[in-house]
Amino acid sequence: MIKIKPILSFLTLAAFVVLFSCSGGQKKTEQADSSVQESNPKVEVNAEAKLLLKTLNEMGDYANSRDFPSLIKPSSVNEELDGNIQIIDLRNQDAFNDGHIKGAVRIDFSDLPAYLTNDIKPFEYDKIVVVCYSGQISSYAASLLRLAGYGNVYAMRWGMSGWSKHFAEDAWLANVSSDFQDQLETVDHDKAPIADLPKLNTGATNGDEILQQRIEALFAAGYHDALVKASAVFENPGKYYTINYDRKDKYDSGHIPGAIRYKPGGTLGIVSEMQTIPADKEVVLYCNTGHNSGFATAYLRLFGYNAKTLTFGNNAFMYDKMKEEESSLSWLPFTETEIHDYPYVQN
């Protein structure tokens, strides 16, 4: 069994000295522990979910902190290459051999917890940077590791696509699309009725053990089921409970049919909000780029939701609209200006 619990204890003390705000610079509206008490009394939250919420809040409520999502730009990684950082590459062996950042180690997604527990001393590094093809998988992985207590883990924005055009051609540049932007709607949709959070059924009796079991289970399961393409969602929008995880003005400008807006910094860990996310339906989260939604998807899957992040975010279905409204709505369309020409190693 992978031992994550000692790392949780390390971070618990440090978390109390940090001042928290949400990732978008907005104030957090309520604390997770108080929301447990203030949730609708007619729908009791199951015991394991309560324990997990309490443990995560005691660790410092990462999901509503200034460090969420924990992204780092390729330019910053390049500047710190000679510093005290460890780069972990999640791509397959062929992709890694075709080119990787100097000093990077290739680790399979499912082996990440064991690698950090047994093969290195994680807290001896200033930063541990997780990279993949586009930043989608590494965002999901970095969120799980942060929730497990590794407070120095980051996902590299844009993945290796931002490092060199050699990698971008088969990842980001091949996946931006405007194919579905004529199907967007501007109708507001109500959240689902309040219900219980998913039942985890770990059998554990304290939050630390529940957290450890859930982290182990999610890494063992791999990442494929945590991802969904825009084509699948637009072809059958009724199949999913789709969450627009972005600002209201962006939601109002056009969203996936049936999508409901949930506020970044005002959803994860807040029981009254999480209770409106159906536990019995596939949940899709999307944002500008898929990075933020990847982090949020990890949190919801930790609690047992069948949540998926829409890969490449809005870039995957309304790219032209994003470019047209980039200045007015602060969209983040991926362009060649995001691609650097940094050196890489082949073997």
Write structural notes for this entry.
This protein has 347 residues and is α/β, with parallel strands linked by helices. The chain has helices at residues 5-15, 32-38, 47-58, 74-79, 93-98, 112-119, 136-147, 165-168, 172-175, 207-221, 230-235, 248-252, 271-274, 291-302, 319-324, 326-329; strands at 71-72, 85-89, 105-106, 127-131, 153-156, 227-228, 240-244, 260-261, 282-286, 307-310. The chain has a five-stranded parallel β-sheet with strand order 1-5-4-2-3. Helix 7 (136-147) packs across helix 14 (291-302). Mean pLDDT is 91; it is low at 5-40.
Largest beta-sheet characterization: 5 strands, parallel
* Gyration radius over CA: 19 Å
Mean pLDDT: 91
What is the CA-CA span between the terminal residues? 33 Å
Count helical runs.
16
Q: Strand arrangement, largest sheet?
A: 1-5-4-2-3
- What pattern of helices and strands is seen along the backbone? HHHEHEHEHEHEHHHEHEHEHEHEHH
Helix content, binned percent:
25-40%
Poorly predicted sequence stretches spanning 5 or more consecutive residues = 5-40
Silhouette: globular
Count all strands and give the number. Answer: 10
Structural class: alpha/beta
Q: Roughly what fraction of the amino acids lie in strands?
A: 5-15%
